[in-house]
C-alpha cells in the first residue's frame, strides 16, 4: 500500500486530510507517527514555497534515515488573507503574534484591528497550498482558495485556527460552525487536496 507522510503535527489538519483523502488507497500518517521530529524554518514568501520547503525537508530526512524514499511526502501551508489589512496575516498566519499564542487571542487581535471596518470591506480568504515530493524526487504543488469575510466575533467550536472569525455568507455561518462534512466539501484544504489526489492518480499506479 502506498504510504503518504504528511509534514504536520497538527491533529486538526490530520483529521481533515484523512477524511478528504481516505479514498485514495494510501496509508496516511503524520511525520511524528513516522518517527520524525524536525524543526523546519518556513522562510518562503508564498504558501507554495513554504509547503515545498516542508515537504523536501521531511523527504530528505527520510532519505537519510532509510537510504531510500519509498513513500510520498506531502506538506501544506495555509493561512488567512484579509483585504483591508493588505493580505495579513498571510504566510505568517501561524506565527502571527508568536507561534505559541492561542488562536483565539490572534483572532481577537485581528477583530480589534478591524473594529471600524465596514461590512463591505471585510473581505478575506483562506488559502492552502499542498506540496508533494514523489519517490523519484519530482515535486508538484496544488492550491485551493475559499472566499468569505471576517465576522465581528468568534463563533463556533467545530474548527481550529481562524475558523471562528471566518464568515461564509452562502452558509450564514462561520467555518467553525460548519459540520465536518460541510467543511470538507468547500474548504481551501479540501480543494487543494482534491487536486493533489488527481496528481497522485497520474503518478502512482
Describe the protein's architecture and organization:
By secondary structure, the protein is an alpha/beta fold. It has one domain (2-203): Maf protein (Alpha-Beta Complex). It has helices at residues 11-21, 47-66, 103-113, 180-186, 188-203, and strands at 2-6, 26-30, 72-82, 123-133, 139-150, 166-168, 173-174. A 7-stranded mixed β-sheet has the order 2-1-3-4-5-6-7. The longest helix is centred in the N-terminal third of the chain and has 20 residues, at 47-66. It is globular. The N and C termini lie close together (11 Å). The model has no long low-confidence stretch (mean pLDDT 91).
Number of domain units = 1
Q: Work out the helix count.
A: 5
What coarse outline follows from CA principal-axis ratios? globular
H/E order of the elements?
EHEHEHEEEEHH
Major sheet characteristics: 7 strands, mixed
End-to-end distance: 11 Å
* Cα gyration radius (Å): 17 Å
Beta fraction: 15-25%
For the secondary structure, the number of strands is 7
Query: The CATH topology is what?
Result: Maf protein
Poorly predicted spans: none
In CATH, the architecture is Alpha-Beta Complex
Name its key features.
205 residues; alpha/beta; 7-stranded mixed β-sheet; 7 strands; 24% strand
Topology at a glance:
Blueprint lengths: L1 E5 L4 H11 L4 E5 L16 H20 L5 E11 L20 H11 L9 E11 L5 E12 L15 E3 L4 E2 L5 H7 L1 H16 L2
Short structural summary:
The chain has 205 residues and is of the alpha/beta class. It has helices at 11-21, 47-66, 103-113, 180-186, 188-203; strands at 2-6, 26-30, 72-82, 123-133, 139-150, 166-168, 173-174. Helices cover 32% and strands 24% of the residues.
Amino acid at each position: 500500500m502506498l504510504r503518504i507522510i504528511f509534514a504536520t503535527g497538527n491533529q486538526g489538519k490530520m483529521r481533515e486530510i484523512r477524511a478528504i483523502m481516505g479514498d485514495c488507497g494510501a496509508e496516511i500518517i503524520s511525520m511524528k507517527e513516522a518517527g520524525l521530529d524536525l524543526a523546519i524554518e518556513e522562510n518562503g514568501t508564498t504558501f507554495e514555497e513554504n509547503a515545498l520547503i516542508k515537504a523536501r525537508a521531511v523527504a530528505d530526512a527520510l532519505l537519510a534515515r532509510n537510504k531510500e524514499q519509498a513513500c510520498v511526502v506531502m506538506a501544506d501551508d495555509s493561512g488567512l488573507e484579509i483585504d483591508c489589512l493588505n493580505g495579513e496575516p498571510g504566510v505568517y498566519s501561524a506565527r502571527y503574534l508568536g507561534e505559541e499564542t492561542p488562536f483565539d487571542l490572534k483572532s481577537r487581535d485581528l477583530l480589534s484591528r478591524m473594529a471600524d471596518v465596514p461590512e463591505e470591506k471585510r473581505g478575506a480568504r483562506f488559502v492552502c497550498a499542498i506540496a508533494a515530493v514523489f519517490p523519484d524526487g519530482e515535486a508538484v504543488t496544488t492550491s485551493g482558495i475559499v472566499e468569505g469575510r471576517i465576522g465581528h466575533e468568534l463563533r463556533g467550536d467545530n474548527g481550529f485556527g481562524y475558523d471562528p472569525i471566518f464568515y461564509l455568507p452562502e452558509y450564514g455561518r462561520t467555518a467553525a460552525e460548519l459540520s465536518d462534512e460541510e467543511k470538507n466539501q468547500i474548504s481551501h484544504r479540501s480543494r487543494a487536496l482534491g487536486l493533489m489526489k488527481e496528481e497522485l492518480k497520474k503518478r502512482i499506479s
